[in-house]
Write a structure and sequence with these properties.
The protein is α/β, with parallel strands linked by helices. 25% of the residues lie in helices and 28% in strands. The chain has a single domain, classed as 3-Layer(aba) Sandwich (Rossmann fold), CATH 3.40.50.150. It contains five helices and seven strands. A seven-stranded mixed β-sheet has the order 3-2-1-4-5-7-6, covered by helices on one side. Helix 5 links the parallel strand 4 and strand 5.
């Protein structure tokens, strides 16, 4: 794995051993971030990489100009990989690693402009997770989710883009204009 673009382009990223995490492919990461950049959703933003795995998504955001990123992960091997990647890439001042369950730690996040969510296979608690994300979001925030299947419409959310990359579906969500605060 490598950083696809930006100031860290081509730099290697390690992934945790085993199959507890599923790193987003370089091709999918490049397409997602090209789309995000065309929306102006990366440069100068505050990012949260939830179920961070290797940290590849958050690192890609930082490489492409995000101001800061919070990585949330509970797997011990994945946390070691994230910390190693951040150190090797010199991102320590712009990155914070939170060890623990994503849902339990959402309450500590505020003013997030871009949320990147890539949970383990089989995750199916999207309405609950997204409802808990809403208070964390800055106005106009974009939430990118990767899942094993296309997401069904959810109250309070609008899907602005959805595309399949191999076995994964990537959807860009925003809070609906008619959602209640």
């Amino acid at each position: 794995m490598r950083v696809v673009s930006g100031s860290l382009r081509g730099r290697p990223i390690i992934a945790p051993p085993g199959d507890n995490t599923r790193p987003t492919t370089d091709r999918a990461r490049e397409a997602v971030f090209n789309a995000l950049q065309s929306l102006g959703a990366v440069e100068g933003t505050s990012v949260a990489d939830l179920f961070a795995g290797s940290g590849a998504l958050g690192i890609e955001a930082l490489s492409r100009g995000a101001e800061r990123c919070v990585f949330v992960e509970r797997d011990r091997d994945a946390l070691a990989a994230i910390r190693s990647n951040i150190a090797k890439l010199g991102l320590g001042e712009r990155a914070r690693v939170v060890a623990g369950d994503v849902v339990s730690n959402l309450g500590s996040l505020r003013g997030i402009d871009l949320v990147l969510i890539d949970p383990p296979y089989g995750f199916d608690e999207w309405p609950s997770l997204l409802a808990r994300c809403t208070p964390c979001l800055a106005e106009g925030a974009v939430v990118v989710v990767e899942s094993g299947r296309e997401l069904a419409p959810m109250a309070g959310w609008e899907v602005v883009r959805a595309k399949r990359y191999g076995r994964a579906w990537v959807s860009f969500l925003v809070v609906s204009a008619d959602a209640t605060p």
